[in-house]
Specification:
By secondary structure, this protein is of the alpha+beta class. The protein is built from 7 helices and 18 strands.
């Protein structure tokens, strides 16, 4: 395809069709031309009413497009609405390709940009993605740490789980969004071995949290479990780092965004067997494991956890502790992830209806749970 043809690629959201326009023609045929005209007219009316005359236009073939990939034009939209426009401005770093991708570029062109490596300091991984337990529409790369979904086009929901059961103790991992984030859903979470990863391969849905065996955080900021969903955080997009802390001793599941605590998503998870999981409905999307750590629930862990809560303003607690260099290195190797987690205690803004990236419930809930369990023992 010529450069001119690629520049004309436009993303148009069609319910039930996780795809995009290429040079004015659909990569997949809509199910009904009448339904397509109805959806398109609705999108036009909604765009005219919310975005105003600036930034929106139509190609010669009548398809709608936006001159910008940023979200200010959609400021009145609820953050929990899925969109065909990739989420921007939520990256962990300030790399240009992560925060301001030009809208005229296609999704395929965005993938050709050299991957950002910010935040990828770890060299040892407790687990990676499982080649034997994944949907058919997935491809593993980077030593099985990066999962690519729907390599050509999407016709449903694909999912994968880690290759190691999260046994007793403390488990922390981070997933980096290495592609544009858009569509019906892209999720990070946990689930038991009973979750059927290929069940919805022909259905667009939020797979994680659809039953009682899994919990999932959507890129829209919604938390899913047992088919229910609640506002939990702000949205995340390309370049965002989503952290997950599963504490099997206290039975809590905590999420982080860009290494800041979002909140405690679930409690009373003791005596259950979980796997880390992700899923996506978006064509040519990808996620990467950049950290996966595990530790026993020991007095050493509890002390490091408490130290981190007392010194939240430092990037790494070890930097300010007057400890011998040898002991610092041992703690860094064994529990460095604990001493670098950000359990912020600042209060969320009252104007936010979808949660806050610095939710005070992170520190307070986890600390209360720690004290309660310690008294029992």
């Amino acid at each position: 395809m010529s450069a001119r043809g690629r520049c004309r690629e436009r993303i148009v959201y069609v319910p039930g069709e996780e795809t995009y326009l290429r040079g004015g023609s659909m990569a997949r045929r809509p199910r009904s031309s009448r339904a397509w005209r109805f959806v398109l007219s609705g999108v036009r009316r909604e765009a005219d009413g919310r975005a105003g005359p600036r930034g929106w236009g139509y190609d010669s073939d009548g398809q709608q497009h936006s001159d910008s990939d940023s979200e200010p034009e959609f400021s009145s939209l609820s953050p929990s609405i899925p969109s065909a426009i990739p989420v921007t401005g939520e990256s962990y770093c300030n790399c240009e390709n992560q925060s301001e991708a030009p809208y005229c570029s296609s999704l395929h062109a965005l993938h050709r940009v050299r991957d950002c490596r910010c935040g990828e300091e770890d060299e040892y991984f407790d687990w990676v993605w499982d080649e034997l337990n994944k949907s058919t529409a997935t491809l593993l790369t980077c030593d099985n740490r990066k999962v690519n979904f729907h390599m050509e086009y999407s016709c449903g929901t694909a999912a994968i789980r880690g290759n190691k059961e999260l046994a007793e103790g403390q488990h922390f991992w981070e997933i980096k969004m290495t592609s544009p984030v858009y569509g019906t859903d892209m999720m990070v979470g946990i689930g038991t071995s009973d979750v059927n990863l290929d069940k919805y391969r022909h259905t667009f849905c939020s797979l994680l949290g659809k039953d009682e065996d899994s919990w999932g955080l959507s890129y829209t900021g919604l938390l899913h479990h047992k088919g229910d969903k609640t506002n939990f955080s702000s949205r995340f997009g390309q370049g965002s780092i989503i952290g997950v802390h599963l504490d099997t001793w206290h039975g809590t599941l905590t999420f982080f965004k860009n290494r800041k605590c979002i909140g405690v998503a679930a409690t009373k998870l003791q005596n259950k067997k979980f796997y880390p999981m992700v899923c996506s409905t978006a064509a040519k999307s990808s996620m990467k494991v950049i950290r996966s750590c595990a530790s026993r629930t020991s007095l050493q862990y509890l002390c490091c956890f408490r130290l981190r809560q007392l010194l939240p303003d430092y990037v790494d607690t070890l930097e300010v502790l007057p400890l011998p260099p040898g002991l610092k290195q041992v703690l860094h190797n064994k529990l460095g992830w604990v001493l670098s987690m950000n359990y912020s205690t600042s209060k969320p803004s009252s104007s936010s209806s979808s949660g806050s990236d610095s939710d005070s419930s992170c520190g307070s809930d986890a600390e209360a749970c720690q004290r309660k369990r310690c008294r029992r023992t």
